[in-house]
Design a protein that fits this description.
Elements (H helix, E strand, L loop, with lengths): L1 E6 L14 H8 L10 E5 L5 E4 L5 H6 L16 E5 L5 H4 L1 H4 L6 E4 L2 H10 L2 H6 L4 E4 L6 E4 L5 E11 L18 E8 L5 E5 L7 H7 L4 E5 L7 H4 L21 H5 L6 E5 L13 H8 L3 E2 L5 E3 L1
Parallel strand pairs: 3-4, 4-5, 5-6, 10-11, 11-12, 12-13
Antiparallel strand pairs: 1-2, 1-14, 2-3, 7-8, 8-9, 9-10
């Protein structure tokens, strides 16, 4: 399986356009912070047919930065992107769908709750049906083949993992608290047996998710915040990590303590907020992540399993 991290930042990217925090200042000055686009991942079994895990608002530049996603010399317009797998309806994971409107019918794996938020609250389906059209695909909780546009097997198998999580802030539906707001994905390469676990939005680790954490070769995990009250402490917002549906990295109940105990080959934090000090090369927090055998994700990172 080919895994390419297109973007690794949370909403707003790094630096965020209106932010003067320490991390954003370092990113703008060319200092110890590498700029990052908003999180999305491209995966493929053969290097030809690709699937996107989320479609960020930065998807156009991400495609241009990764030649494998460029159109081929087989007609005026085409794309190797077969489908998009959405983990939730948050804007930083779905606005890129609108930027893909000029192509073929857009195939999107998304739960009923995510479809409802995008269709009823934001009119995504209506807008896209005026351009390329949409095909919604319900994610299966059992492992099933990821299919190309023509219905053939891609060589990848996918299993959706229900996670606790809140609906997006813009959701107005009466059923907004229903299950299906957040999903993770377990992707397996049929030929190599390589296993990817993609969990960029984790409010809490359920027993089912904990059991799956060790059963993968690559773990892409929610690295949004270092501390529970990071936004408040930096006077950049009033919401805590929990309020925003994210498990912080540090602390006795943080994700790093759990990830440090895993004997997984690649443990990578992604969806990292611009306030998170792990983004600063050489910071104590980045050193703590490295000491736990984990990696701070960066745009353009590639892994093959």
């Amino acid at each position: 399986m080919h895994i390419h991290l297109l973007g690794t930042a949370a909403g707003g990217g790094v630096p965020q356009w209106n932010c003067y925090c320490a991390v954003c200042r370092e990113a703008r000055s060319g200092g110890r912070v590498r700029p990052r686009t908003q999180s999305s991942v491209a995966i493929s079994a053969d290097g030809k047919s690709w699937f996107l895990l989320n479609a960020s608002p930065d998807i156009r530049v991400q495609i241009e930065n990764f030649p494998a996603l460029h159109p081929a010399n087989r007609g005026a317009r085409n794309s190797p992107i077969e489908a998009v797998l959405a983990t939730n309806a948050d804007l930083d994971h779905t606005l890129g769908l609108l930027l893909l409107r000029e192509g073929e019918k857009l195939r999107v794996h998304a739960t009923a709750a995510v479809r409802r938020a995008l269709s009823e609250d934001l009119s995504f389906a209506s807008v896209l049906n005026s351009f390329c059209g949409m095909e919604w695909i319900e994610p299966s909780k059992a492992s099933q083949a990821l299919l190309r546009r023509d219905g053939s097997e891609s060589g990848l198998f996918c299993e959706a993992i229900p996670l606790p999580g809140k609906p997006p802030r813009f959701s107005k539906a009466a059923t907004a608290t229903a299950a299906g707001n957040v999903m993770g994905y377990r992707i397996v390469d049929k030929r190599t047996g390589g296993r990817l676990l993609f969990l960029p939005d984790v409010a809490a680790l359920t027993e089912a998710a904990l059991q799956m954490l060790a059963d993968c070769d690559v773990l892409l995990f929610d690295g949004t915040f270092w501390t529970e009250n990071e936004m408040r402490d930096q006077e950049l917002g009033k919401l805590s990590a929990s309020d925003m549906g994210h498990l912080p990295i540090s602390g006795p109940a943080g994700s790093l303590k759990t990830l440090a105990q895993l004997s997984v080959r690649h443990k990578i934090y992604t969806h990292i907020n611009n306030t998170n000090p792990i983004l600063i090369d050489g910071s104590p927090e980045a050193a703590e992540v490295a000491a736990a055998g984990c990696t701070v994700g960066r745009d353009g990172m590639e892994i093959e399993i």
